[in-house]
Amino acid sequence: MELSNTPARDLDKFIEDRLQPDEDFRTQVREAIDIICSFLKERCFLHTSHRVRVSKVVKGGSSGKGTTLRGQSDADLVVFLTNLTSFQEQLQRRGEFIEEIRKQLEACQREETFEVKFEVQKQRRKKPRALSFVLRSPRLHEWVEFDVLPAFDALGHVTKSYRPDPKVYIRLIQECEALGKEGEFSPCFTELQRAFLRDRPTKLKSLIRLVKHWYQLCKNRHGKILPPQYALELLTVYAWEQGSRKEDFCTAQGFRTVLELVLQHQHLRIYWEKYYDFKNPVIGQYLRQQLAKPRPVILDPADPTGNVAGRDLCSWWLLAQEVRVWLGYSCCKNRNGSPVSTWNVPVCSPDSFT
User: Fold this and answer.
1) Most confident range, picked from 39-43, 123-127, 199-203, 252-256
2) Which is nearest to 331 in space by CA: 248, 206, 214, 204?
3) DSSP string for 186-206
4) Dihedral angle, C-alpha 310, 277, 245, 263, nearest 10 °
5) Partners of 250 in the beta sheet?
6) Cystine design at 84: which of 98, 146, 152, 324 (Cβ 3.0–4.6 Å)?
7) Are the beta carbons of 319 and 216 closer than 8 angstroms?
8) Which 3 state secondary structure label does DSSP give 288?
9) Coil, helix or strand for 182?
10) Average pLDDT of the residues in 193-203
11) CB atoms within 10 A of CB 116
12) What percentage of the chain reaches a pLDDT higher than 70?
């Protein structure tokens, strides 16, 4: 049964049967990630003319956050290099590190160093942010897609209760404004993005999977002109925080609430104060400027320079048109045909700076 035909009362079963990755799949992806992490740490920069040190490799994306959909084996790996000493230097030099990683992957392929096969993808941008490739191993039943992103280690050692020194964000804001590159350096904050979602209730992650599946169905119709998927993930977290906060909740209610928020996209102004807030005058002034920009505004909880809602209002309009159709489907209706009720969620985060 497809999502559109699934009764609202059966959404939990739909997620379990169709969207939740099985243990074998998760094991395969973990093994693939371990192979690439070992390569990046131990071999990739071994024979470079200048010493390159990898301080850490961090798994991001859906794999890192625990929201992977069944059958979609992709992983973002952020390679933090001690050779990059600023956000600006990351922007200037990441190309050379991407090229070095590509060369070493191809060398491994020729030498048959590992029992794996790499296939580097064609770059769509002249100055790409990441190296995209796929990997196949005898232990894996399918290809695993990777994006490897070289990054400046702005955070250092991150613990579970870590909150960055305001100086980190002041530097980020100043460099982004000078370079005109707001949101460009979000990979530097991958660990915080991951931590923001990782310890959330299991059922909330299931709801995120459902929203992502719905988003992919819409994207298949419209291509790449929809809002960023990350915006929908954060919108789902916001809906749950403001409307439920329970570990066990009605999935259909949560799903419909997110859809209704998409309909109100022109009013959305959402942010979090988990890793940054208004107390520092430089950060506070910048946040007020960000929140005063045309809506929708959904600030990355780990990177105040990143409005993950994007700037294309037309893309939100298209997604809202999809919502109007989906609200008539079984997944959004009760047994008697009435609409599933929604949580009471404001379109704006409660202000703490007025």
Assistant:
1) 252-256
2) 214
3) GGGGHHHHHHHHHTS-HHHHH
4) -30
5) none
6) 152
7) no
8) helix
9) coil
10) 93
11) 20
12) 93
Exposure string of 23-46, with b = 16+ CB inside 10 Å and e = fewer, is eebbebbeebbebbbebbeeebbe
Q: Which two tokens stand for residue 71?
A: 């059958």
Tokens of 37: 């992490």
Structure tokens that stand for 44 in this block: 């990739």
Tell me the pLDDT tens digit for each residue of 82-134: 999 999 999 999 999 998 888 887 777 776 655 556 677 666 666 788 988 88
Tokens, residue 327: 């609200």
Helix/strand number for the chain, H first, E second: 11, 8
Q: What's the residue count for the chain?
A: 354
Strands (E), the chain: 54-60, 74-81, 117-120, 131-136, 144-152, 269-270, 297-300, 303-307
